[in-house]
Amino acid sequence: MSKAVLILMFSLMASCATSQAVRRTSPTSPTWQLLPPSSLGTTRAANQRLRAAYADQEISLDFAVSVTADRITVIGLVPAGPRMFTVSYDGHQMDAQASHEVPAALEPGRLLNDLQLALWPRQALERAFEGSRWRLTEPDERTRRLLRDGRLVAEVHYTTADPWTGRTWLVNFDGGYAITVDSQSLE
Fold it and tell me: Tens of pLDDT along 21-53?
C-alpha cells in the first residue's frame, strides 16, 4: 500500500457514506509488474483485518481477499461498515470500483503488489523478478525481503508458516508505511 492508498483510506473513514460506485479502469502504478492470479498455484480466500500506519496516522480496514486461477479480488470495508472499494485483476487488466468519495489517488496496483509480496510463493516471485532490478530473499522461514538494485525496499514478517493465516507485518521503506494484517483463511 502506498501513501496515496493510506490517504484514500483516511478519506473513506471520514466520509463513511454509501453512494453509487464509480468504475475506474485507468492505468495504475504498481511497483513491479503484477503476477497473474494463476501464479499463486492454488485457489485461496481469506478475511483480513488490516491496520496501516503512515507518519502519525493510522487506519483499520477489513478486507475480503479471493484468488482463483483467473482473478484476484480485494474488497475493502470500513470495519463493521459499508464496502468502500473493490479491486479486481485478471492477469491482464485491473478494475477498481469505489464510492464516488474515493479520490483518484487510489492505487490498486500498489495494494496488489503488497498482497502478492506477502502471500505469493517465493518461487513465483523469484521467477517474475528474473532479469529485473528486483530480488527476493528469505533470510529465515518467517522473513521475506524485497530488494531493488540491491537496496532493501520492503520486508515482511510472519507468525505462521502459512501467510494466509495468522499475523503478518509488512514495512515498505520506500513508501514510508507499515501494515499489520491478521488473516483468517476461509478454506
Answer: 444 433 344 578 899 999 999 999 999 998 888
